[in-house]
Amino acid sequence: MGTINKLPSGAYRVRIRRLGSPVLSRTFPTKREAERWQSEQESALAHSSTLPLSVRDYKVAARVTLADLVERYLGSEHFAAKRPKTQRGERIKVPHLIRHLGEYGITKLNASLIAAYRDTRLKEKTVKGTPVSRDQVRLEVALLCVILNLAAGEWQLIPANPCKGVRKPKGMERDRRLDEAEEKALRLTLMRRKDNRLLRFFLVAFYTGMRAGEIAELKKSYFNVERRCLDLPPAATKSNKSKRIVLTDHAYNILIQAANDVEEASPFIFSSKSRNGEYHPFDYGCAWHRVLRKAGISDLHFHDLRHEFVSRLFENTKLSDGQIASLTGHSDPRSLWRYKHLRSELLRPDVQEVSDMLVNRRIMSEIAQEMDPRQDDQNYAKDSWALRLLMDANPDWAFYRLHLDADDIAELKKLKEEYSQKPSKSKNPSESTISTQAFKI
Q1: Is 239 helix (H, G, I), strand (E, B) or coil?
Q2: Which value, in Å, is the radius of gyration of the alpha carbons in the chain?
Q3: What pLDDT, on the 0 to 100 scale, is given for residue 118?
Q4: What does the longest C-alpha to C-alpha distance in the chain come to?
Q5: Which of 171, 281, 376, 424 is deepest in the core (most CB within 10 A)?
Q6: Cα torsion at 87, 93, 97, 100 (round to 10°)?
Q7: Model confidence at 427, in pLDDT bands (50, 70, 90)?
Q8: Measured between alpha carbons, how far is 332 from 439 in angstroms, rounded to an integer?
Q9: Are 328 and 310 in contact (CB under 8 A)?
Q10: Closest among 420, 381, 419, 423 to 402, alpha carbons compared
Q11: Which of 152, 121, 137 is nearest to 48 (CA)?
Q12: Sign of the C-alpha dihedral computed for residues 179, 180, 184 and 190 taken in this order
């Protein structure tokens, strides 16, 4: 498909021909660079539905830096269609990308440069002196991948996305739980505040398990008073899918109070008002951190309340994974697998039933008999089985016939019936005066 020719000047020219697409041609000072470019272009032709760049387009794209590409992305319809919170988060990540890779032309970006950016960011520290989290770096690389996808797709600036194949850092899953003492301190601190918006905001999250962004952006139009639920449109959810949240009595009453107390002009149930008089979703962040400091609670994120809600559902209910996913809004039930271990106590009766099923009583009895040093004493063995039958509340007569004669079984049945009809404070045969010496064995 491609050929490499050495020119009189000593340079190497690559020409790639493909039916129905323009001829790709480029000159390189070394044969190694020419072979690498040829391999990249042929790979793009084989695995990408979009055609590679023509020579003229390549020269145009070579003058575009990543900083220019990011600026175009921030002004695009793709960015404008995202939720305000997502936009704020991406604007925070953009400066780090520009600081490290902004001067590179987009045609020069490759997987090794992006991997080096990932490794460098993982070694950096934040303003507070703490290491940059793996989740932060993962999201930065993911944003870069989104931007380069647009460049390779709709914008047709590069033949393929160089981010593909770059391993993203795997973040640590938080397992922070809220104990009773912390819950009490948090509730008291919130109740003592003059502004009760944060208290109601906390209680809605505590009783529904909703994400903080979903609660902050709740509009009055989402509140279905008749059905006592919230109907969230796709634009108001993380998964961009409509979701119905069934409300408990506590959550319903709290939302009714919040909707009645908020200003009538505000479209939001929980809202903040800017200096120019515009209403926007409730900004809870700073107030939440102040409350935590005052309550003496450390390392508690607001999103941990959602984790607490799901954990309590697994610990205290027998709802199926699908039912819990419908309540919490998890689009993929596999996200709930990390909570499976919380159901160990609820499964104890089932586990015991499985254990009883696996135990072969006859084999265990034979083993116990063979291990007994007095197994050769026939009278002792019969006495042991007779005493065991008397202590058995629901004896398996077929099982005891393997060890006792028919006359012995009949005598023991009669003795158990007499004992059951005799009034006694203790119904445990082992506590009575019944002895196997009372009958002939």
Answers
A1: coil
A2: 36
A3: 94
A4: 119
A5: 281
A6: 160
A7: very low
A8: 68
A9: yes
A10: 381
A11: 152
A12: positive
Record the tokens describing residue 387, joined without a space: 């005493």
Which among 218, 311, 310 is positioned nearest to 262, based on CA atoms?
218
Would you state the structure tokens that stand for residue 148, as one six-digit string? 């380069």
Name the pTM for this structure.
0.58
Domain 180-343 has CATH 1.10.443.10: yes
Q: Which residues contact 403 (CB under 8 A, 6 or more apart)?
A: 365, 381, 382, 385
Q: Which pLDDT score is estimated for 188?
A: 94
Helix (H, G, I), strand (E, B) or coil at 354: helix
State how far Cα 2 lies from the chain centre: 47
For residue 60, the number of C-alpha atoms closer than 13 Å in the C-beta half-sphere is 11
Which one-letter amino acid corresponds to residue 202?
F
Question: CA-CA distance, 223 to 221, in Å (whole number)?
Answer: 5
Q: pLDDT band at 136, cuts 50/70/90?
A: very high
CA–CA dist 304, 317 (Å, integer): 20
Contacts of residue 98, defined as CB under 8 A and 6 or more positions apart, other chains included, come to 66, 67, 70
